[in-house]
Design goal:
Blueprint lengths: L1 E4 L2 E4 L10 H13 L3 E8 L2 E2 L14 E7 H29 L4 H25 L9 H20 L3 H9 L1 H22 L6
Parallel strand pairs: 1-5
Antiparallel strand pairs: 1-2, 3-4, 3-5
Helix pairs in contact: 2-3, 2-6, 3-4, 4-5, 4-6
Length: 198
């Protein structure tokens, strides 16, 4: 089958078992033919960018152009999204602490959601680090953050809420701030990186 990638027709092999939605076939093409150097940025039809929800309406892959970008750009954008999430988390920590005694269950629910979001930022970095330029200190930065998160989790699980609140007031904001600064440094590095990957 021929598909247009960055304006050039290229031959790709898809078997009968690969038949699926257009978006799933695009992910398969991305995995087999582009990754890890490049990733899909967007898809065009007749020179118009298709909204991701409209991609599956196209049944003939020869009608589209797959526009790619270096995979590092995609990962950098995900880390930048994680940074935006971290900014919101840092602002939320103080609110959780203030609401701890008056809105206990709600504050704890919000804390669990915050911890899930924090875990997502770690997963973005862990997954992205496989295709990013080699950047020292990733494992150590994750370990420092996780030490504090696990400590907070353990205290909550054991019902030691006053100690958990103290960690939330002192160690936790510092750990999240350090993680945010680490990611900022990582984004700066990616923007200037020559492209060596693992």
């Amino acid at each position: 089958m021929k598909v247009r990638i960055d304006g050039k027709l290229q031959e790709v092999e898809l078997s009968n078992t690969d038949i699926g939605s257009t978006s799933s076939l695009l992910r398969l093409i991305e995995y087999r033919y582009l990754f890890p150097e490049r990733s899909i940025k967007y898809v065009e039809k007749d020179g118009e960018v298709l909204h991701p929800t409209k991609v599956d309406e196209v049944k003939d892959l020869s009608e589209i152009n797959i526009v790619t970008e270096p995979s590092m750009n995609m990962v950098r954008k995900q880390i930048e999204l994680a940074l935006a999430a971290l900014d919101a988390m840092i602002a939320s920590i103080d609110r959780i602490v203030k609401d701890w005694d008056t809105k206990g269950e709600l504050a704890k629910l919000y804390l669990h959601n915050l911890l899930d979001s924090l875990d997502w930022t770690v997963k973005v970095v862990e997954t992205g680090s496989r295709i990013l330029p080699i950047y020292d200190g990733i494992d150590e930065a994750i370990a420092r953050l996780e030490d504090t998160v696990f400590r907070l989790d353990d205290l909550m699980y054991e019902g030691r809420e006053e100690e958990a609140l103290e960690v939330l007031r002192s160690e936790f904001p510092k750990a999240v701030e350090e993680w945010r600064e680490f990611l900022r440094g990582m984004v700066r590095f990616i923007k200037n990186a020559p492209g060596e990957i693992h």
